[in-house]
Amino acid sequence: MQVISSAKELRQHLASAAQGISLAFVPTMGNLHAGHISLVEQAKQQAQFVVVSIFVNPLQFGANEDLSSYPRTLDEDIAKLRLAGVDVVFTPTESEIYPVLQTVTIELPEIANTLCGAIRPGHFRGVATVVLKLFNLVFFGHAPRKIALFGKKDFQQLFIIRQLAQQLNIPIEILAGETMRETDGLAMSSRNAYLKPAQRQEAQRLYRALQQVVQAVQTGRTDFATIETQTGQYLTQLGWIVDYISLRSAASLAPATADDQQLIVLGAARQGRTRLIDNIEFGK
Ligand code: PAF
Known about the structure:
By secondary structure, this protein is an alpha/beta fold.
């Protein structure tokens, strides 16, 4: 496994080592958990050559967010990726990705300003920009198949990246990995490391609350706004700060209607300063 931090070196290496063979890419911000490793395993099943990037992207963090405290565990991450059989780990510096201060960014449709985008203005612009830059650094030669993998826990991110690839005619298949969960149901996330013991115990309730929403809809309720409000109030009473609980069409991410057959309930809520997100896709 090669660990490469310069974009030039990455290109040179891929031009010889990955020329003409299928290539899968897993972009990450590091602090890798079983969810990331399952994306890597999926990548290995799909392609002959696997690249993982580790880059904590400043452009997707708001001014008062956790950029400086985001867990950085590069040595452990590299050891995990070596064990998982990755071919190249790309660990660029900030100046490698953003060589100039006034960077070009991607303008996204309105969907990027809803849900997490409403709470974190500019977040998805930062995500889309770095993902496109990384795609251009990793996928430049001829490969019979070009694949990039993203986790379903960040469902809105996955949705926006699919739109990005489709609408900007990027010839890369976007594949999704299932959310990995702790034994009590909490979705795995690098940010779970911030939780104090009592918060960690409470954290599984977000998933449980979303499961109750699914149950309510599957038993025939169509008063979606009421279900969302009641679930939010329930979590608030238990000490959560709720950003949103939202029922949407799984295909378009538009607010769910009684006619939608494939739905998704998404939730974002905070335990103290730790913001957790989760979602469940389901059919009626
Ligand atoms: O999901 C993440 O870890 C990040 O948003 C991504 C896709 C690596 C872009 O920085």
